Sequence to fold (212 residues):
Amino acid sequence: MNRNVPLTILSCILVMLAALTLFVNKVVTPTDLTKEQLNDLGAYLIDPPRELGSFVLMDTNEKQFLPLDFKDKWNIIFFGFSFCPDICPITMSLLAKIEDALYDRELKEVRFFMVTVDPDRDSPKKLKEYLNNFSSSFIGLTGSLDQIYNFATKVNAPFNPVSNNNDPYYTVDHTGSIVLIDPGGNYAGFFRTPHNEDDIKEALFDLLTRSY
Fold:
């Protein structure tokens, strides 16, 4: 019997197993979305991410909040205010739905914030009460108007500052974009308006699988 025959068969089997392994790995191993794919989902990343510089804010537990406190997790940030009649509650409700869709392992990698653009009315207590309507894990940030404005300009989240307004029903013009700060504590990009829940979830799932 020709001994080369079994060796040939064995070689073929090994080649087939190698090809099958490569195929399975390609199917099972997730690949990062391209820049164009993220753009199609409304997510725009900055390359390289920008350092935030310095600012001092206060969270809803009345603790000082600094740029370094953003590190080690992805941070989803919306600039708004509790007296906002439309875009703020709509956006925070959207973020609450997105949070609910995350698995436990993903929830450990991300935080959700609302930074007030109306510190005259949004005390830490007021912000906490407001955000609890959407999720008890949402974090509110407030502080002096100049520090908030300083932070907002660093992440391209413009708003028109209002101070000492005697009208109890005044409003504040602000962006509807959702800001992204990466685990390195840098401004990484944003989700443009109008927001789509499924698109944001898909882009966020992709970002949470990346190594930083």
Notes: The chain has a mean pLDDT of 88. The first strand starts at residue 43 and ends at 51.
